[in-house]
Write a structure and sequence with these properties.
Radius of gyration: 14 Å
Distance between the termini: 40 Å
Low-confidence stretches: none
Number of helices: 1
Largest sheet: 7 strands, mixed
Strand content: over 45%
Order of helices and strands: EEEHEEEEEEEE
Helix content: under 10%
Length: 121
């Protein structure tokens, strides 16, 4: 059984900050590449920020410099710190855990249920 539980979403004014959390089971967390994706109304799901297999980070250009992905191995939790939020950041944010694939199809690819982030003007 795999469970990814996101939290921290909400409504915030433009320019504000929000921190999302994703808690995973220990076995999955330790074995997986963790990341955040989002899906805005009428849009396809897109990458926001991920760790790569080397533990370094990758960000969408639209959030670079504003968002920071981090993780706490002791808590089996990955975070997304979002600052200087813009209305265009409004989306459902999803936590993702996938097996390292090195360009191949991942052995597994798990998703949380998502947490809504709404940024008002």
């Amino acid at each position: 059984q795999v469970q990814l539980v996101e939290s921290g979403g909400g409504l915030v004014q433009a320019g504000g900050s929000l921190r999302l959390s994703c808690a995973a089971s220990g076995s999955i967390f330790r074995a997986s590449i963790m990341g955040w994706y989002r899906q805005a109304p009428g849009k396809q799901r897109e990458l926001v920020a991920t760790f790569n297999s080397g533990g370094f980070t990758n960000y969408a250009d639209s959030v670079k410099g504003r968002f920071t992905i981090s993780k706490d191995n002791a808590k089996n939790t990955v975070y997304l710190q979002m600052s200087s939020l813009k209305p265009e950041d409004t989306a459902v944010y999803y936590c993702n855990a996938r097996s390292p694939s090195y360009g191949l199809q991942p052995r597994y690819d798990y998703w949380g249920q998502g947490t809504q982030v709404t940024v008002s003007s």
